[in-house]
C-alpha cells in the first residue's frame, strides 16, 4: 500500500532553518549543525554525496536515513527546492543536483507559474512540473509510485501544506538537540496530530531525537 | 556544590500550557495530557499525592521525578504559582497546597507587591515573599540551601527569567509527544543553550522524551 512520507530535520525549538541568501551557503548558517549527524551517515554519504568507500556512521541515524530512501516510488517537492524561484528566467535550469540527481524516481515539482516540459535526468530521476492543487498532484504521484511510497520532500512550506491537509501517513522528524531561535516554524497548526497518528521516539548515538508519527 | 535546577513539562511543539480560568481546572485543559506520564510515577504519587501504598510507575519517568526532588535545599516560585494573583486581597491565603505543601524546604515566592510575613507550614515548608531582583533572591536561596540544590519551580515565566539570565545549571524538560498548538512558548530567546550546556536525551517507556541541559 502506498504511504505518503515526510522526513524533516528540525531543531529542538521546532524550527527548520530559513534559507540564507548567500550563494556560498544557500541553506543558511543553521543548516550545517542541524543536519550534521544525518549527513554523516553511511546512507547519506553514499546516496547523496556519492561516496563509494562505505564511509559514514551506521547506527540509529543511518537506519532512519536508509528508511527515508527505502521503497520510494515518486516524490513531490516545491518550486524553491528545485530552484525555480532562484532562476525563474532560465528555461535551461535543471535543479541544484547536476546531471544525476539523488532522487532516482519521478519528482513532481509544484509551481504557481506555467509548467515547463518534463526533464529526464540520468539515474532514474524525471522532473515533472505541475501547477495544480496538491491533492491532484499527489494522486498523480501515487499512480507513478506503482504501489511504492510517495515522499513529500520539501521545502518545509510544502511539507506543512501536506501535513495540514491531512495527506501525510508517516511524518519522521530528526530533532537535533540544538536551539536556533528562528527560522520556519514546523509545528504550527498541527495540534492533535498524536490523536490521528501513533508516535514513536528514540534517541540516536549522536544525540539526535527521532520522532515518528504514523497512521 | 549548589546547582540551580529547572524541571519543566512541555509539549513536543515547545509549549507549556497557559493556565485556564476555570476554578475546576486551574491549569487548563492541556495540563492533564501533558503531565499524565509524570503524575503516574511512584515518586509523584508518593511525594505530591500522598499515596503510601507504593502505587505508581517505576521506569525512566520515575527516575527523573525522583531526581527532581533529590538534594533540593530551597526553591523559588512565582507569585502566580503561589496564588497571589488569584487571591491578591486575602492576607490569610497560604497557597494551593493545604497545610502541608509538598516542597518541604524554604520556598522563596517572587512578588512585585509588598512582601508578606513568612509562612511556616507543616512538613518543612516555609514560604518567604521577596520583591527583589532574581539574582538577589537566588543568592538568598543558595545560602538557605546549605550546599544542596536550588530548584526554580515555576511558573514558566519565572523559569524563563532564570534561563535567559544564565542562572540555570541544569534544565530538564520532560517532553510529552503531543502537539498542543498554543500556550506559553518555552524556547524563545534561548538560542545556543547547547553551547554553554551539554545535552543528554532519552525516551521513557511512556513515550516521554527527557532532555537535560547541564553545565
Automatic annotation (TrEMBL), chains A, B:
Pfam families noted in UniProt: RibD_C
Annotated transmembrane regions: none
Biological-process GO terms, alphabetical: riboflavin biosynthetic process
Bacterial bifunctional deaminase-reductase C-terminal domain segment(s): 4-190
Sample GO molecular function, one term: 5-amino-6-(5-phosphoribosylamino)uracil reductase activity
Protein name listed in UniProt: RibD domain-containing protein
Amino acid at each position: 500500500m502506498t504511504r505518503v512520507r515526510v522526513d524533516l530535520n528540525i531543531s529542538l525549538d521546532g524550527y527548520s532553518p530559513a534559507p540564507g541568501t548567500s550563494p556560498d551557503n544557500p541553506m543558511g548558517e543553521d543548516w550545517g549543525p542541524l543536519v550534521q549527524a544525518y549527513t554523516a551517515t553511511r546512507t547519506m554519504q553514499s546516496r547523496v554525496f556519492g561516496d563509494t568507500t562505505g564511509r559514514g556512521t551506521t547506527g540509529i541515524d543511518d537506519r532512519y536515513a536508509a528508511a527515508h530512501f527505502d521503497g520510494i516510488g515518486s516524490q513531490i517537492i516545491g518550486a524553491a527546492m528545485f530552484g525555480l524561484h532562484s532562476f525563474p528566467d532560465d528555461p535551461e535550469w535543471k535543479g541544484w543536483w547536476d546531471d544525476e540527481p539523488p532522487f532516482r524516481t519521478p519528482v513532481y515539482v509544484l509551481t504557481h507559474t506555467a509548467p515547463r516540459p518534463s526533464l529526464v535526468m540520468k539515474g532514474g530521476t524525471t522532473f515533472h512540473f505541475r501547477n495544480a492543487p496538491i491533492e491532484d498532484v499527489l494522486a498523480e504521484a501515487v499512480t507513478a509510485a506503482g504501489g511504492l511510497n510517495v515522499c513529500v520532500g520539501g521545502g518545509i512550506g510544502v511539507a506543512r501544506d501536506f501535513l495540514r491537509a491531512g495527506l501525510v501517513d508517516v511524518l519522521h522528524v530528526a530533532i537535533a538537540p540544538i536551539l536556533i531561535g528562528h527560522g520556519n516554524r514546523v509545528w504550527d497548526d498541527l495540534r492533535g496530530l498524536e490523536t490521528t497518528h501513533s508516535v514513536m521516539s528514540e534517541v540516536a548515538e549522536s544525540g539526535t531525537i527521532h520522532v515518528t508519527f504514523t497512521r
